[in-house]
Amino acid sequence: MPLLRALVGTVRSARHAPRLAAGLVPDDDVLLDPPDDRLAPALVAAALGDPEPAAKLLATTRDAAAWEDRDRYVVRLAAFAHHRGDWLTGWLAAAPRDPDAHLVTAQLSVRRAWGSPARAERLRELAPLVREVAAQAPHDPVPWRLALDHARGAHAGHAVFESLWEQAVLRVPHHYGCHVSALKYLSAQWYGSHSAAFDFAEQAADDAAPRSLVRALPVRAAHDGLRAPPGPEGSVPDTRVDAAADRGLALSAAFPPGGLWPAEIRNLLAHVLIKRARWDEAWAEFGRIGPCATSFPWAFAPGSLGKDPLHRFLTARDRVRDEMARRTPLWNPRRARTGRSGPRGH
After folding, report:
1. What's the rounded Cα separation, in Å, for the pair 335 and 316?
2. Shortest CA distance to 9 belongs to which of 328, 230, 257?
């Protein structure tokens, strides 16, 4: 019987997989971490050594208090400077007092320290720089998100972390990046537990506005919990993972398909749904993702060593397609009764 089921599944997959694939964005059209229309010109200019568009972009987000966009742009610009830093050096030389140039520099420095074997020691050396950029921006939560990331890697105690968290939420109570940083600190991989992480994430999601990305924070807790080995409290409870996925599905459905804004949340949600073998919902989520693959979570998926995140994304999408095809009957009685072209006479 197992052999028969395997053979039937193979035949179903061969028949239905091409039809299912036709409903998705082709592999060659999927982009990894595509920039939006405002960030793209800044990255192109930076590649040519011109920091002015990046400076104007971050100044605009600061003046408009567009903190979520600002956080994303700072991270992306620092990531670009990690490989091509001449434009950032030129920016600092031309505008040595520009708080945005200092913020990108601090983000880049923390990123580099995180990749060092002596991570904690190098991060502690950066403490004055992190404090300085926070002091330069009394209303901006992004330096405090950076301070939270820095504190976690530098092994700061709970009292230090809580004081930074208070400063972050004092500026923007529902800033997504700050909440993700706090969730990481509370996770079982760092200084908390599955219960602490889920409690924090679920409460934050309950308190957030209907379309806030914080609503998907439990999905992040589920992902982190599924990655962690079982600890003293055991594995992450399936019931909380499924409830988190349900929250994520509700949030994702509130945005148009293919959008850049919810792209990372949708990629994360698809990953969790696959882990829970919720194939129908994972397939629908890949449809909403469209061409917008994101490095997170695919760069950190098990077995990702030596494989780029885009390859991992496409492999996961293919797996869901094959699972859907294997579960689709070879013969549809309703379709046979109505004929291959459907009901006639209309």
Report:
1. 30
2. 328
Question: What whole-number distance in Å separates Cα of residue 64 and Cα of residue 61?
Answer: 5
The values of phi and psi at residue 55, to 5°, are -60, -45
Angstrom distances, CA of residue 239 to CA of 86, 243, 288, 331: 49, 6, 24, 35
* H helix runs in the chain, sequence order: 2-21, 39-47, 52-63, 67-83, 86-94, 99-114, 119-125, 127-135, 142-153, 158-171, 176-186, 194-207, 217-227, 238-253, 263-275, 279-289, 295-298, 309-326, 333-338
Tokens 């409830």 found at: 243
> Where residue 199 falls among pLDDT bands split at 50, 70, 90?
very high
Secondary structure of 93-157 in HEC code, one letter for each residue: HHCCCCHHHHHHHHHHHHHHHHCCCCHHHHHHHCHHHHHHHHHCCCCCCHHHHHHHHHHHHCCCC
Question: Which letter does DSSP use for residue 258 in this model?
Answer: T
At 1 the pLDDT is 54
The confidence band for 136, taking pLDDT boundaries of 50, 70 and 90, is: confident
pLDDT tens for 277-302 read: 999 999 999 999 999 999 999 998 66
How far apart are alpha carbons 273 and 246 in whole angstroms? 10
Q: Give the amino acid at 102.
A: H
